[in-house]
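can u pls check wat happens w/ oxa(dethia)-CoA
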Amino acid sequence: MQKINAAITAVGGYVPEYRLTNKILETLVDTNDEWIRTRTGIEERRILKGEGLASSDMGAEAVKDLLKKRGIGPEEIDCVICATVTPDMFFPATANIISHKTGMVNAFGFDISAACSGFLFSLTTGSSFIESGRYKKVIVVGVDKMSSIVDYSDRTTCIIFGDGAGAVLLEASTDECGIKDSLLKSDGNGKDFLHMKAGGSLKPSSVETVMAKEHYIYQEGQTVFKFAVKGMADVSYELMQRNHLTADDISWLVPHQANLRIIDATANRMSLPKEKVMINIQKYGNTTAATIPLCLWEWEKQLHKGENIILAAFGGGFTWGATWVKWAYDTQ
Ligand code: UT7
């Protein structure tokens, strides 16, 4: 029997209108544009403004964009996997809410919580559904409204994060294109360095937890940085080695956009020149689960059938991983 590959056949994306620039952040906390640019590479991020708007609204826009490009109806989708750490609610899953908002009435859905690696974990999960032959059309959404968990009086975190959503459609392919290999890792020892302290079953929400600002991101930046540099570079290199890929074989690196210095370290380890690295951190900051699909969305027209692309991420948990994709289409 011919092997079924899971190919990405369309990409959609959405970023909110409002631009939170470094200059504006200078008015909120003790920081400056120069520090933010040199330490992170970020110039501005998008923020979802407006009462009653949540991650699902951005995810729904990305899905609508994707369906329109592919020319298919929402009822054709079998499954929706949503990677997010900022779900609309604890439950139901944001995937279900996105399905409802877009008319994906025949799809089942669920969320995956793997922080900045969430898109890669979800992509691998979705691919397995296609490869098994069980489902024909699976959408993977990476979305985060990070502004909902950022403390805008904490200069060590508020400069980093932004809001956005990206989505890809997975379909069966019998040629060599598709998701070729994934190397995914997690280590719960990392939880101390990047987490949200309260609101879960360990420390349910209370007046005290709100007063103590425990519903915001807590990050020990330097420690996370050290693990991220090593984790993302190692896993990308290992994925290349085990698939006998050289730098010349790779057309693009699509790194999680957390810090330009982490991206540079990964590209160096893979011996990839800057021109082969997708970077949009300056415009969007770190949108957690959305960074990788938002890159694919922006670069889609420059991608060609058969090109080898490495996606790589590191995030809270710790979670990290790399995925090798052979691109499946040329954009008309
Ligand atoms: O995507 C999820 C995974 N997360 C990551 O990958 C993030 C990894 N970490 C990082 O990207 C970096 O650690 C940060 C961008 C968060 C921080 O950069 P850093 O180079 O590690 O800075 P630092 O924490 O070592 O701080 C250096 C100095 C400190 O001052 P002193 O103690 O040397 O006087 C900080 O207080 O910079 C100060 N500082 C700031 N100064 C101006 C910290 N934040 C700011 C700021 N503006 N926003």
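The pocket of oxa(dethia)-CoA is lined by residues 31, 35, 39-40, 116, 155-156, 159, 221-222, 224-225, 228, 258-259, 262, 286, 315-316 (CB under 6 Å).
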